[in-house]
Protein backbone atom coordinates (compact mmCIF):
# COMPACT_ATOMS: atom_id res chain seq x y z
CA UNK A 1 0.00 0.00 0.00
CA UNK A 2 1.05 3.53 -0.80
CA UNK A 3 -0.51 6.50 0.95
CA UNK A 4 -0.84 9.56 -1.27
CA UNK A 5 -1.61 13.10 -0.14
CA UNK A 6 -2.29 15.77 -2.74
CA UNK A 7 -2.05 19.49 -2.09
CA UNK A 8 -1.78 22.76 -3.96
CA UNK A 9 -5.20 23.08 -5.54
CA UNK A 10 -7.23 26.26 -5.44
CA UNK A 11 -8.86 29.03 -7.42
CA UNK A 12 -6.83 30.71 -10.16
CA UNK A 13 -7.62 33.10 -12.98
CA UNK A 14 -7.33 32.03 -16.62
CA UNK A 15 -3.72 32.18 -17.72
CA UNK A 16 -2.49 31.62 -14.18
CA UNK A 17 -0.33 28.90 -12.67
CA UNK A 18 -0.54 26.33 -9.91
CA UNK A 19 1.74 23.62 -8.61
CA UNK A 20 0.19 20.43 -7.29
CA UNK A 21 2.11 18.13 -4.97
CA UNK A 22 1.59 14.47 -4.21
CA UNK A 23 3.50 13.21 -1.21
CA UNK A 24 3.83 9.44 -1.04
CA UNK A 25 4.57 7.16 1.88
CA UNK A 26 4.96 3.43 2.08
CA UNK A 27 6.91 2.88 -1.12
CA UNK A 28 9.76 4.57 -2.93
CA UNK A 29 8.69 6.55 -5.99
CA UNK A 30 11.78 5.33 -7.79
CA UNK A 31 10.04 1.94 -7.93
CA UNK A 32 6.62 3.32 -8.82
CA UNK A 33 4.86 4.75 -11.84
CA UNK A 34 3.10 7.98 -10.88
CA UNK A 35 0.30 9.79 -12.63
CA UNK A 36 -1.99 12.78 -12.35
CA UNK A 37 -5.58 12.37 -13.43
CA UNK A 38 -8.50 14.77 -13.37
CA UNK A 39 -12.24 14.49 -13.24
CA UNK A 40 -14.67 17.27 -14.04
CA UNK A 41 -18.31 17.08 -12.89
CA UNK A 42 -20.26 14.60 -14.97
CA UNK A 43 -17.19 13.41 -16.84
CA UNK A 44 -14.87 10.43 -16.59
CA UNK A 45 -11.51 10.53 -14.89
CA UNK A 46 -8.81 11.15 -17.49
CA UNK A 47 -5.05 10.94 -17.50
CA UNK A 48 -3.29 14.31 -17.45
CA UNK A 49 0.34 13.31 -17.10
CA UNK A 50 2.41 10.43 -15.86
CA UNK A 51 6.01 9.71 -15.07
CA UNK A 52 7.39 6.20 -15.12
CA UNK A 53 9.59 4.67 -12.46
CA UNK A 54 12.44 5.40 -14.88
CA UNK A 55 11.56 9.09 -14.99
CA UNK A 56 9.97 9.18 -18.45
CA UNK A 57 7.05 11.64 -18.68
CA UNK A 58 4.01 11.50 -20.94
CA UNK A 59 1.18 14.02 -21.30
CA UNK A 60 -2.36 14.28 -22.56
CA UNK A 61 -2.54 16.31 -25.76
CA UNK A 62 -4.72 18.90 -24.04
CA UNK A 63 -1.95 19.87 -21.59
CA UNK A 64 1.22 19.44 -23.66
CA UNK A 65 3.35 22.55 -23.50
CA UNK A 66 1.46 23.88 -20.47
CA UNK A 67 1.86 21.24 -17.75
CA UNK A 68 5.02 19.57 -16.48
CA UNK A 69 5.22 16.51 -14.26
CA UNK A 70 8.30 16.05 -12.11
CA UNK A 71 9.47 13.85 -9.28
CA UNK A 72 11.72 14.40 -6.26
CA UNK A 73 12.85 10.99 -5.08
CA UNK A 74 14.50 12.41 -1.98
CA UNK A 75 11.16 13.87 -0.86
CA UNK A 76 9.18 10.99 -2.33
CA UNK A 77 6.93 13.57 -3.95
CA UNK A 78 5.53 14.10 -7.42
CA UNK A 79 4.59 17.51 -8.74
CA UNK A 80 2.38 18.84 -11.48
CA UNK A 81 3.35 22.32 -12.62
CA UNK A 82 0.42 23.89 -14.44
CA UNK A 83 0.85 27.04 -16.52
CA UNK A 84 -1.49 28.82 -18.88
CA UNK A 85 -4.51 27.46 -17.06
CA UNK A 86 -7.84 27.48 -18.87
CA UNK A 87 -11.40 27.21 -17.54
CA UNK A 88 -11.59 23.73 -19.08
CA UNK A 89 -8.79 22.64 -16.74
CA UNK A 90 -11.23 22.95 -13.85
CA UNK A 91 -11.54 19.55 -12.16
CA UNK A 92 -10.59 17.48 -9.17
CA UNK A 93 -7.02 16.34 -9.68
CA UNK A 94 -5.99 12.92 -8.41
CA UNK A 95 -2.59 11.40 -7.88
CA UNK A 96 -2.14 7.72 -8.70
CA UNK A 97 0.61 5.25 -7.88
CA UNK A 98 0.92 2.00 -9.79
CA UNK A 99 3.34 -0.92 -9.82
CA UNK A 100 2.92 -4.54 -10.85
CA UNK A 101 -0.83 -5.13 -10.45
CA UNK A 102 -1.31 -2.56 -7.69
CA UNK A 103 -2.95 0.84 -7.95
CA UNK A 104 -3.43 3.43 -5.21
CA UNK A 105 -5.24 6.77 -5.47
CA UNK A 106 -5.10 9.95 -3.47
CA UNK A 107 -8.15 11.81 -2.25
CA UNK A 108 -7.91 14.55 -4.86
CA UNK A 109 -7.50 18.30 -4.83
CA UNK A 110 -9.84 20.79 -6.48
CA UNK A 111 -8.53 23.12 -9.17
CA UNK A 112 -10.87 25.87 -10.33
CA UNK A 113 -9.94 28.21 -13.18
CA UNK A 114 -12.26 31.18 -13.30
CA UNK A 115 -12.22 34.94 -13.51
The chain-level mean pLDDT equals: 96
**Terminal Cα separation, in Å?**
39 Å
> Helix share of residues?
under 10%
Into which percentage range does the β-strand content fall? over 45%
Tell me the Rg in angstroms. 13 Å
Number of helices: 0
What low-confidence regions span 5 or more consecutive residues with pLDDT below 50? Answer: none
Characterize the overall form.
globular
Strand element count: 11
- Element order, helices and strands? EEEEEEEEEEE
Global structural class: mainly beta
How would a crystallographer describe the biggest sheet? 7 strands, mixed
Quick structural summary:
The chain has strands spanning 3-7, 10-12, 18-25, 33-39, 46-51, 57-59, 67-72, 77-82, 91-99, 102-105, 109-113. The chain is an all-beta fold.
Topology (SSEs and partners):
Blueprint: E1 3-7, E2 10-12, E3 18-25, E4 33-39, E5 46-51, E6 57-59, E7 67-72, E8 77-82, E9 91-99, E10 102-105, E11 109-113
Parallel strand pairs: 2-11
Antiparallel strand pairs: 1-3, 3-8, 4-5, 4-9, 5-6, 7-8, 9-10, 9-11
Describe what you observe in this structure.
It is built from no helices and eleven strands. By secondary structure, the protein is mostly beta strands. It is globular, with a radius of gyration of 13 Å.
Which tags fit this structure?
mainly beta; 54% strand
